[in-house]
Amino acid sequence: MGKDILEQLNIWNRSNDYYASPCKICYTLGERLKEWRNRNNISQKEFAEAILRIREDMGIAQPLQINYKSLKPTDPVDKLYDDARMKRITNISKNCSVWEKIDFPKNDCIISLNSLKVLKKLIRCDYEFLTCEINTLHRGTEHIAKLTGLDIASIEKLITCYKELDLYDSDSVQNSYTYAVLQCLDQIISDKQLLTYLSYYMTYNHTDSIGYENSIKIQTDRFNGDNPNNLNTEIIIDIESLKTISSLTISNLLCKLQRRKKAQSKMQETNAIVNGTEIACSEDSFGTRIKKWRLFSQLTQPKVAEKMSEYLINNNLYQRPKTEDSRISLQSNLLRSYQNWEAKKDKKQDIRMSLTDICMLKSIMNCDYEYLFGEINTLKRPEQNRLSYLGLNEESIKQLESLASFDFSNTKSDVPVFASRILKTIDQIVMDNELLSYLTYFLTDLEYSENIVFSDLLQPITIVGKTDCVAEGYKKVLYEDDQKRNVFLPLILDRISALHTNYINNISE
Question: Do the beta carbons of residue 30 and residue 101 sit within 8 Å?
């Protein structure tokens, strides 16, 4: 069951609703956890099960307590393990119920650092989402959406894909697929002609142009042999014929793109620049990390306590002391707290802290949460263009920025007037896992055999009990090369047609 729930939470199995809207109405951590669970349609028990699996994968799960003395001679040994595991899941489920009632930042709460790490990995978000500093899963989502013209849902999904992509584990099936998807999107976004036809077919309501009898009139400047002086004539095309013409045109453009641009077979590392000096190492404990920061910043422990006091007072978390004695008392208490944190030398120890204290340390240290949690050894994350978190190449990003910059008042703009429709089409492709999958297998070198065995088009029917030499001959000639990939083409067209229908139905409601 554990594997099933993690597979259900895979980024390629999540519904559009998961990415669709930021959590602006979820003001507390508890509300966000509950909303996330509801969006994924999982129970608290399944939530707990997924948490246990992730803890095990991260190597931070406590060993199961198995009582072999209670084993009856007729009981299988696995029963003890299953019972102990179920007991652990039940306990975690109780904790999940408590988490969903956390009303931070309205009120402070105590939580373990490992729990925050697990929640970040499970939800696939940034720590700032858990501390309620941002309303989207990732930092900068709304800014990137504004720059590119794409929906927030598309941005969230692309960032999630990119952050999940382990460039050093190219043998991973999911990594290979995710990388191929991003490469496929690069190919499509960079092909302006293909995007033009796709956007016309997927976002234009052809019935608005109907003249009569389900037909439309199209102006053409082709030469009319009967009337050499008339270069502008009207031709009438019925809707079904128009769909056929569009399908053939899109098919032709996709085939050209397939021949012209295959996705790179190797993953490319991002051009990230290390921001600052590495002052910690991966083996350092939480206490060692904050001590190394203090020494690097040339601060004494009392000076850090002063910074903590300023933070609490400036953020209205503590009333400014009115007397010198109360100020000294506050400083003394904060100093003891900080000294206690620095004393945490065991990296394996699951430290429990208040969320306010975690946010405070991040602020006074001017670092990212990832440094505190041992995920990076510099105070800040590697510095790179924020748009690069989409996982797309520079050409694609420039194309998106150009489309998003269209201005009707600029008559000399090279950006087409239907730029918004192109962006809407890209949103549709990004958010539809089925279409995205078909396009990826058609346009890239990704292994596809396991995904098209269901197609009757692939293999001639073999007559049982009789060797069909003709069929075997066809198999050898027709089905042993890369052209088998073309089976995805009709699936692509069918899905595009379905998305167009959904689009028209949605705008007509």
Answer: yes
